[in-house]
Amino acid sequence: MPYRILQIGPYPPPGTGWSVRIKMLKRYIEAAGHTCVVMNTNKNRKVTNGEFVPVLNGWDYAVKVLRFCARGYLVHMHLNGKSTKSPLLALVAECLSLLCGRRAVLTFHAGVVQDYFPRQNKFWLDNTFRLIFLLAGRIICNNDAVKARIVEYGIRPEKIVPIPAFCLEYIEDKAALPASLAAFVQRHDPLVCSYIYLRPDFNIDFFLQAMAQVVAAVPRLGLILMGADREQEALQEKLRRYQLSANTCSAGDLDHGDFLAVLEACRVYIRTPVGDGVSSSVLEALMLGTRVVASENGARPPGVLTYRDGEVESFVQAVLAALAQPAATAPCANDAQTRRQRAQQLGVRDTLAEELSLLFEAAAS
Predict the structure, then answer these.
(1) Using an 8 Å Cβ cutoff, are 44 and 50 in contact?
(2) How does DSSP classify residue 157?
(3) 350, 168 in Cβ contact below 8 A?
């Protein structure tokens, strides 16, 4: 009997770690002969395009969740501890699912240090997250360290499953390098890229201040910034302030395939957030043969050069060291054996199969 699964969370664009995972799950759930509907909570949530169910407002959200639950859909809710909106949406979805006789599956994204997670010793906040975790039938999280923090809310460890949001199938999306970047790529060598937003967790002023020192040491360096599509005016002002405009191309929000193409074209990928846990973009870069420099958060895979967050000198030394290394050999896009070997070296599991198995088991109950 085909299963019906309702995923609630951000859907591309932009292609963030969450949204790419949701799109990938939808693709493979449907390929297995089941039904998957996505209720989009992303900034493009009011768009009607057939790939997802739009969300117009809070009332519209609640009504649509209830309708899907009444039709037998399993709720798969995606959230993190960086906002107050996603926990409220999760509570609504979980309660409506229970009203229809079924517990939701919860995926809790990101790492162990978030704005409202782990426990803050604040009654209303801690008990909100405790209730969210208690109501869920199963909980998927980023890694064992996050699982341990969830257990501290009084949650049974056996219902929490660490499944990092990355799998080999991600690399299959890789497209050709966008034509709009061709001229910039020809003018600059080496190339460095990063995915950013002008939010505190991306520490953008620190990043640009440190990159200015890197450019001073490597004048022909080109920096490709992806993301921050709606923040371009503020971003350009910051680039002028740090005298990085001539060395920087702001590519905005890219499709996942284009994002992967940029990763492969660059010598180094830089990841600045500390609270991201096991980052899918870091693993994507490593799988494509791109060196990675990232803030130290205790969850970086082998081969990543790390720096201490907020320390400019530590950042500059890490980036220069990465640039000094010979370019890594990227696995052939069509060479499945090479990809599997690289994945084994990085400790990458078949997490897509793990997550699908968990969802199908929950849908069957």
Answers:
(1) no
(2) G
(3) yes
pTM of the model: 0.87
pLDDT in tens, the chain (365 residues): 799 999 999 998 877 888 999 999 999 999 999 999 999 998 888 888 889 999 999 999 999 999 999 999 999 999 999 888 999 999 999 999 999 999 999 999 988 989 999 999 999 999 999 999 999 999 999 999 999 999 999 999 999 999 988 888 888 888 999 999 999 999 999 999 999 999 898 999 999 999 999 999 999 999 999 998 888 899 999 999 999 999 999 999 899 999 999 999 999 999 999 988 888 999 999 999 899 999 999 889 888 999 999 999 999 999 999 999 876 655 544 466 777 777 777 777 889 999 999 999 999 98
Q: According to DSSP H, which parts of 152-271 are helical?
A: 182-187, 204-217, 232-241, 256-265
Q: Alpha helices of 84-122 — where are they, by DSSP H?
A: 85-99
- Return phi, psi of residue 18, to 5°: -60, -55
Rg, Å, the chain Cα set:
21
Residue 224 neighbours by CB under 8 Å, 6+ apart? 181, 184, 191, 192, 193, 194, 248, 249, 251, 262, 266
> In whole angstroms, what is the distance from residue 82 CA to residue 306 CA?
23
CA neighbours closer than 13 Å in the CB half-sphere of residue 182: 4
Q: How far apart are CA 328 and CA 349, in angstroms?
A: 22
Whether the CB-CB separation of 226 and 196 falls below 8 Å is answered with yes
Which position has the token pair 């910039």? Answer: 184
**CA-closest candidate to residue 291, choices 328, 236, 238:** 328
CA distances from 183 to 179, 187, 188, 189 (A): 8, 6, 9, 12
Given a contact cutoff of 8 angstroms between Cβ atoms, the answer to whether 111 and 276 are in contact is yes
DSSP-H helix ranges across 167-255: 182-187, 204-217, 232-241
